[in-house]
Amino acid sequence: MRWDFGKVYKEIRKSKGLSQQEVCGDRLSRTSLSKIENCQSIPNFEHMVYLLNQIDMSLDEFIYICNLYQPSERQSLIIEVNNLLETPDISKIEELVQRCNNCLAKEDDVPIKNLRNVLEMFQWIRTNGIQKKNPEYQKLVLKIWEPLERRDSWYISDFRLLNAILHHFPIDCLQKITQHIFRNLEKYKDYRNIKRDQITLLVNLSTVFIKYGHLRECEEILVKLLKLCKEMKSYDDFGLCQIRLGICRGDSSLIEKGRQLLILCEEKDLLQAVDLEIERYGSEVILND
């Protein structure tokens, strides 16, 4: 990681053909910018955001460049855990837990601690299966849930943590939590960077509600999800939504539309999974051949 970020900024500014005067505008003096670019001064947050806006660059991209055009070990770890498959291999989980421990040995890091909590829960489940009444299992879930429960507002990182434990709530508790989720997601309706996380969270919520036969709540979620999937052009999730909405409404034509979309997307594994859902939860719906 390059900590001479003032020099990095200067290199980017010059490569974009921007003069100091163009970047400074009427918000910052050229003398102040020169001190920043020569690493003689550290800008406050407001000035740094302004300077990055002036070169049309996000903070994430700037940090990535400072790290020599590759993610740091910390960033790489966070990305890898967030992209973890639903049923990861136990050896992969153990490797990620160890990497979390390595990071935490260097410095205290709350997000990495949270990731380790999720991984340790996954590790326990992969070894012992889901045992909701087991005290050890409950302790692992509560370690994630208790800090979230105390908060009035949930943020993007909170949604990701919540997503990891959705399946472990009793259905009556989840019904209350769902309304709080909706209220907090509404705040992010114009923030595109959360859309993928929203889809994942709502898909998992619909999975739990359809599993317990709460079709009215499931339909409410799916209506929101359908709009979101269309906006993001997430066609596999759109097809899944159509199928589940068809189950909730007893609409065989909607189910078949969803199945055909998954066939076109070549989502064979997902198609097999939803066919089992149709068989299990939509037995009264007659599929078109």
From TrEMBL:
SUPFAM superfamilies, sorted: lambda repressor-like DNA-binding domains
An example Gene Ontology molecular-function term: DNA binding
SMART domains: HTH_XRE
TM region(s), chain numbering: none
Residue intervals of the HTH cro/C1-type domain: 10-62
Gene3D superfamilies assigned: Tetratricopeptide repeat domain
Matches recorded under InterPro entries: Cro/C1-type_HTH, HTH-type_regulator_Rgg, Lambda_DNA-bd_dom_sf, TPR-like_helical_dom_sf, Transcription_activator_Rgg_C
Protein name as it appears in the record: Helix-turn-helix domain-containing protein
